[in-house]
Amino acid sequence: MGWKRGAYPEFTLEDAVATLFLLKTPRGRKQISEELDLGEGSVRTLLKKLSKMGLIESKQKGHYLNEKGLKVLSEITTLFSEPVEVEKVENMPTYALLVKNPPQFKSIELRDEAIRYFARGAMILVCRNGEIVFPEDGRSLKETLPKLAEDLKKLNPEEGDLIVVTWAEDKADAIKSAIHVALTLKKSELPKEILEVGE
After folding, report:
1. Cα separation of 122 and 168, whole Å?
2. Residues ≥6 apart with Cβ < 8 Å to 87
3. In this model, does residue 8 exceed pLDDT 80?
4. Please, are residues 191 and 26 in contact by the beta-carbon 8 Å criterion?
5. How many structural domains is the chain composed of?
6. Are residues 107 and 159 in the same domain?
7. Is the dihedral angle over the CA atoms 185, 144, 84, 15 positive or is it negative?
8. 113 is in which domain, residue-wise?
9. Burial 179-193 (b: 16+ CB within 10 A, else e)
10. Residue from 51, 117, 123 nearest 88 by CA
């Protein structure tokens, strides 16, 4: 797993999106590096790119989203929510996010995507008739994991929303694998500014 943290600056679209969520409040480069488990060189390059695109500004307290950055972030949140920490699964850091108006999907393929992106496991759920259920068979999550089902309510899911839950040994991997699944579904609808950052 160590290959993704080399000395050369390297970051992904997932890192860029996660950074936008983080920069709702000013943060220093070191903080971002620790939160996302990303080398400081990569963070420096990423921040430089976000700044060049006019999405962030910097001051003594750190880097933060400016008006344009906040607008781009609000466009992203119409597609999917920020990952939030939820009840642990398999005793590992666990994060969940909502995907609005998901296109057709196969749960198994989305789970595979999460695992390919360093998650140890993932659950793909949907909101149906006010219940959080497994899309394949309509089983309610609260039958097997009542605490997690209760915790997911803080995402305020609405009818038809898809809920991605990912867990990993490392908090950053859990967050970024959840974002990765959301991007798998919604990349084509992302604001062009953030797509260009990932190029």
Report:
1. 9
2. 94, 145, 147, 148, 150, 151
3. no
4. no
5. 2
6. yes
7. negative
8. 79-189
9. bbbbbbbbeeebbeb
10. 123
Are residues 43 and 121 located together in one domain of the fold? no
How many Å apart are CA 75 and CA 114, to the nearest integer? 23
105: domain CATH number is: 3.30.1360.30
Predicted model pTM: 0.94
- State whether 42 and 135 are in the same domain: no
Task: Kindly report the average pLDDT of the chain as a whole number.
Answer: 94
- Strands ordered across the beta sheet of 162-167: 84-85, 94-99, 162-167, 121-128, 131-133
Q: Please state the φ and ψ torsions of residue 122, each to the nearest 5 degrees.
A: -155, 155
Task: Say if residue 185 is in the same domain as residue 90.
Answer: yes
Q: Are residue 46 and residue 97 in the same domain, yes or no?
A: no
Report pLDDT for 6: 45
What does the pLDDT look like over 142-174, one tens digit per residue? 999 999 999 999 999 999 999 999 999 999 999
Tokens 């995907």: give the residue. Answer: 99
